[in-house]
Amino acid sequence: MSTTTAAGVVHEPTFLNGDEFHIPRFELLRQDGTLHPQAAAPEFERETALRIYRAMLFTRVLDERMMAAQRQGRLSFYMQSTGEEGTVVGSTAALDPGDMIMAQYREQGALAYRGFGLDEFMDQLFGNEHDHGKGRQMPIHYGSKTLNYLTISSPLATQIPQATGYAYGQKLAGEGLCTLTVFGEGAASEGDFHAALNMASVLQVPVVFLCRNNGYAISTPAHEQFHADGIAPRAFGYRMKVIRVDGNDVLAVHQATRAARKLAVEDNQPVLIEAMTYRLAAHSSSDDPSGYRSRKEEDAWREKDPILRMRRWLEAQGWWSDDEEKHEQETRRREVLEAMKAAEKRRPPALETLVTDVYAQVTPALAEQLAALESHIRKYPDAYPKSAPYLDRDKATGGRDHG
Amino acid sequence: MSTTTAAGVVHEPTFLNGDEFHIPRFELLRQDGTLHPQAAAPEFERETALRIYRAMLFTRVLDERMMAAQRQGRLSFYMQSTGEEGTVVGSTAALDPGDMIMAQYREQGALAYRGFGLDEFMDQLFGNEHDHGKGRQMPIHYGSKTLNYLTISSPLATQIPQATGYAYGQKLAGEGLCTLTVFGEGAASEGDFHAALNMASVLQVPVVFLCRNNGYAISTPAHEQFHADGIAPRAFGYRMKVIRVDGNDVLAVHQATRAARKLAVEDNQPVLIEAMTYRLAAHSSSDDPSGYRSRKEEDAWREKDPILRMRRWLEAQGWWSDDEEKHEQETRRREVLEAMKAAEKRRPPALETLVTDVYAQVTPALAEQLAALESHIRKYPDAYPKSAPYLDRDKATGGRDHG
Amino acid sequence: MAEMNLLQAINNALDTAMAANDKVVCFGEDVGVFGGVFRATSHLQEKYGRDRCFNTPLVEQGIIGFANGLAAQGAVPVAEIQFADYIFPAFDQIVNETAKFRYRSGNLFDVGGLTIRTPYGGGIAGGHYHSQSPEAYFAHTPGLRVVVPRNPHQAKGLLLAAIRTPDPVLFLEPKRLYRAAVGEVPDEDYELPLGEAEITREGTDITLLAWGAQMEVLDRAAEIAEKEGISCEIIDLRSILPWDVETVTESVLKTGRLVISHEAPLTGGFAAEIAATIQSCCFLYLESPIARVTGLDTPFPLTLEKEYLPDHLKVFEAIKATIDY
Amino acid sequence: MAEMNLLQAINNALDTAMAANDKVVCFGEDVGVFGGVFRATSHLQEKYGRDRCFNTPLVEQGIIGFANGLAAQGAVPVAEIQFADYIFPAFDQIVNETAKFRYRSGNLFDVGGLTIRTPYGGGIAGGHYHSQSPEAYFAHTPGLRVVVPRNPHQAKGLLLAAIRTPDPVLFLEPKRLYRAAVGEVPDEDYELPLGEAEITREGTDITLLAWGAQMEVLDRAAEIAEKEGISCEIIDLRSILPWDVETVTESVLKTGRLVISHEAPLTGGFAAEIAATIQSCCFLYLESPIARVTGLDTPFPLTLEKEYLPDHLKVFEAIKATIDY
Ligand SMILES: Cc1ncc(C[n+]2csc(CCOP(=O)(O)OP(=O)(O)O)c2C)c(N)n1
Ligand SMILES: Cc1ncc(C[n+]2csc(CCOP(=O)(O)OP(=O)(O)O)c2C)c(N)n1
Ligand SMILES: [Mg+2]
Ligand SMILES: [Mg+2]
Questions:
Q1: Contact A33, B45 (CB under 8 A)
Q2: I need a labelling partner for C129 at 20 to 30 A (CA). Which of A12, C239, D229, D296 fits?
Q3: What is the pLDDT of residues C39-74, one digit of tens each?
Q4: Is A15 in Cβ contact with B27 (below 8 Å)?
Q5: Comparing C-alpha atoms, which of B183, B175, B234, B237 is closest to residue B208?
Q6: Using a 6 Å CB cutoff, which residues line ligand 1?
Q7: Longest dimension (CA), chain D
Q8: A25-345 belongs to CATH 3.40.50.970
Q9: Domains in chain D, CATH or no CATH each
Q10: Tell me, what's the pLDDT at B400?
């Protein structure tokens, strides 16, 4: 079986580098909210459109509030999705709810769209006893089994080959579902990214790879991350279908993802989507972008705000008004504040969560380590204010499930 | 700074997968030894041509003999380059002798061309006291500092990012040298391959990546290794110059490598070369290809033998004759046999080589471990025939250099 | 019961597991048509189809990343890494992902179905990169199970248990024994317990402890020692992580002496953990220091492999030194 | 002499090394214009140009592969891995390549010029993946040096020695101390010895041993113990590999008791190696078992980090238990 094309033979050295090929960018909406003249109006129900818009708006509000909370010292760490809500929500909305999402960390919009509860957000951010992750990971490492959203893992790109494997399992199960994995253009430099694409292509796996090309990996600009025409041409290395889309055009992202999902689910074909967008905020609450990029550059992108663009479109459809906007924003802000206050007050996870879930059952050695720790804490309760006050309450309620 | 082309905008989802682009194969010689009609005669001096041919022939002879020796139980392991001599020798001959070569394991032809001594080959194969590698690695893990050939390392693809780093050092040193790194199409699946290409492209490093696409990685055929049009299109992912060449056409390989080297050294541009060839022999002495490929497939490739092709060309130039061929083959066979006999008889490396070179200086702990081992061996000399007989001789000659 | 070598027992275990549960999937480099370079997966593709037994591209980090995802989905992947020396490109996927999957998600997601099989160890003229024993790297990684069988019967029972336990398992196969170890293996489906050591020989004067291919080295050393009147108790640790502190402690409380052996280098090898734990648990009962007989603190050599390896003579000398302390 | 924090001392060491030798090259993720996420490489690009201080793409295996090649060429690379938790994708390049480069080539080629810097450890609310202490993984790898400084003065001297030693060095920086540890640092170029432990406090009743950020935990524990009349000798191991058996042995021969502390999980942590070695070297002099005060055998948590970490109270309790044994 030949694995190369019979593209013909040449008799003098001929070098190519890909510049011969041009990867267009798919767009539907212009920044003023009108469709490009040649663009067909997307088939969109009012309800879906509003659900998308509300999820984007909620994400923006959540990010603003929580960043402020971090600045006030109420939260240890935060990461905003600002400017990228279109990419994240638009793609999520194009999926089946049963499809798996394996994201990087800046994809809170996907959870918002799928209906992650405000308390669920807050409990994770504050690592309290209700956090699904039991207070083990830093803020923004959300996960939801019921919403098919894999718990975030900090090591970059590890979820990408995992998505290939997950989707292979979906193919074997034959339920017509796929996996969407989201990652930054920086993470796409990791070896795991390439392993994932190559394996998906060879094994014909229903997975959609969505790269948020937002221009930066912390301080590293994309042009120091790669020398090529974005991330898209890497797909050619695996003969994988690829599409580049304006990531701030939520309608285009949605349509591109829907088409990609169709290829994935119906033909077991992996697809790469490169969404061109921009990280408007700092990398995280620990970062200050003024050291590596200009205000001017940021401002230029602020004009391309995906939320504003969609809002204008919604208004043109007659589906949204200033009043609704104002009401929505106020409600959300208030809810976020209230939920935050409640979550802050919730107690920390029980001491035993230190040793559960390492294995399916707590091992005898871990049970011993826990017991030793417990008597130590009883000796010095003042030194361990997060656990000491609760030791006996846990006992009384039979909170422990190991052993 | 924009990192994507202004390739234009589209308004409906448009997927590409690279099939739009065709990567031609560069060839000069036909199998009958005549040039393709449109091909310009390569500028080749008789001396260089014969040196290339002799290196290929020597490699073939060495491989046949040593494989036979392995079958006789004289050697623990062996790997043949049969069928790929054109790729390896042709590329090496296009380099400056000062250029670094970082190879995989099937590139003995490069050493043969550069003048690695027959005894040097044999001493490595038998891991005796003269082996540059001091008997620490399996047969075929050659290395030569004077010939700028990095010692082979078994973990696949690790040398590829190392080549990028080495070449970066050459660029800083500004001596107009480059690095050639050679690897199989299987190894090109490793994450290290991608890291290497991306970094070379971003950091503008004078390195030539040469992929021997020989159709198999042990039993795994190329079409289960990747789904694309060979390895070449991966270069597009990094906007790197790439050329595909008939790997069994030594003149074409030579010319492609010369052109690539020029780009690397003069413009600090990395280049990828994909040489289309075939592994005619088994993967190694431990392998039996009849379990995974057909005799017919092998025979078809045997017809494309790179050595025969070049021989016909040399004969057509009037630079080579049947007599010379016969004489060369006989001489080489005899020399190989003699060298093998001598190498087999040489003693094993001294006991102290177990602990030297772990650090630049032997640490006190290692000196102690060695001393303990030595007294143990003195107690049970029969159990350690490779070292016991030599302990005192080493002492007498002051063989140790640690401490 | 049939006579099998270690490879056949592994192949048989995989066959048994795949027949019993169609979620079991085997893959890795050359694992498909060819059945793996050692043939541990022979005929499985024929029997269960290409979807359930297949070649992967040559990328260990991808193999384990893929396996993690597949396990998270609910399948039961058995991934082969061709040699333990080549597991390190997958180290991040194993140590940061596999081991921490359940914990970090608060038990929402887990990769408990995953088993990673890989041949390890020396004594086959494999030199630098076909001989390493990397168990200690993984034994410092909470969340993993690390299991090593010593013979065909153990291999089948432990591998079946590994595949079915709800925790991810690194299953290290002593490749020196692949064809060398032959024994009776039950035809039926059976499991041997994980996390439990086994006393393979009872004795009173000294405890010898090892795992995998090193067990036969202990046996030979014990025979020699027996001739000198030293009664050795021998323990096969079987599970390196979590390990069976109790069985080892009890034995050492009885014998007062312990020799541990492994092929990996001394410094930071798993014998260090055992010695550290046992000196603490058995402090007042120890008659002499716990001895470690291991590889040298160097990479693995080729020509002088015999000199490098902790053989029965070195173990015997350690027994004597410990007894005569 | 100037007052510096640990980060400034490291920055100063890099500056000193780059000024003294134009073969020294610094790189890693965000290391260029930005000067690293912790700012350890601040201003180096400005001073020495983009060729000698630069950002790399986000690929740790590539960074170390590149660094290995660059070192083999004769340059003196100082590669930064942004967090020690993210060093594992480079594990193969470090363990199979860096550590074995000289040995496998019979000393034809080496990467002795290479230094890998990376921040490690907990106590900064970094949770699961910004807190790990991976020293034991590397300490089981002959061919590497592993070095950990405890304060700014040590950091500058040890880092300069690490850059200049002809062996590859993994230099682990206790990030909890980056800004917290402040002290006098000589302006001039100086080196502190690798492979040598340092007694930072003399005492007679018990030896306390640690490295890096754990040293201040020992100091606090020793103060409390002192009040109860227990005289502690404190040793900073400084080099984890190769480590200074002699200094530790001598101290324990004197005190008869040893407590070792590290943040990494207990099982397979480097305290195991020290305990195993010292129980053997000091068997007849030990008054009580060697104690280990470490992280739990779990991944690193966030909210209950304080509970997880081996703090001064836990060390103090271990001291008392050891004394009262
Ligand atoms: C393996 C690994 N290396 C380094 C880091 C540290 N790190 C966290 S985010 C980040 C930049 C990621 O950039 P990108 O993938 O473009 O995503 P973005 O932040 O732009 O959304 C880095 C280097 C990490 N988390 N994991
Ligand atoms: C990291 C790693 N994984 C696996 C192996 C085992 N192995 C040795 S050679 C080989 C196949 C290599 O195929 P390719 O790169 O195409 O080179 P070829 O043998 O065809 O020349 C494999 C899987 C290895 N040496 N290193
Ligand atoms: Mg980015
Ligand atoms: Mg090949």
A1: no
A2: C239
A3: 999 999 999 999 999 999 999 999 999 999 999 999
A4: no
A5: B183
A6: A 106, 154-156, 183-187, 212, 214, 216-218, 279, 283; D 29, 58, 60, 82, 86, 89
A7: 60
A8: yes
A9: 2-185 (3.40.50.970), 198-323 (3.40.50.920)
A10: 42
